Prior knowledge:
39% helix; 3 helices; 22% strand; alpha+beta; 4 strands; elongated; 4-stranded antiparallel beta sheet
Amino acid sequence: xxxxxMRGVQFLTDNLGNKTAAIVDLKEHSAFWADVLxxxxxxxxxxxxxxxxxxxxxxxxxxEKHGELWEDVYDCLIIESRKDEPRVPWEEVQRxxxxxxxxxV
Length: 105
């Protein structure tokens, strides 16, 4: 997995530095988490961080247990972080790949 910095996400690592889980800030990503709940129902096997009032403020996604869900979360966070980046026309991408010898047409 590439080392992108994602707003509202902290990673847990093992003693070798491998990422093993992510803590996702539910205030930062509340709309996304609502979509997750709509698809998979009330999560009974997730661990949450709660504030002093008992409100869920973050969810722990263990990659071993929730790997497929994390892949979806990761993709959505990357898409969200790049939504305002300028678009490159397909023809320009093709030309650049051809120049680098990575695409034969």
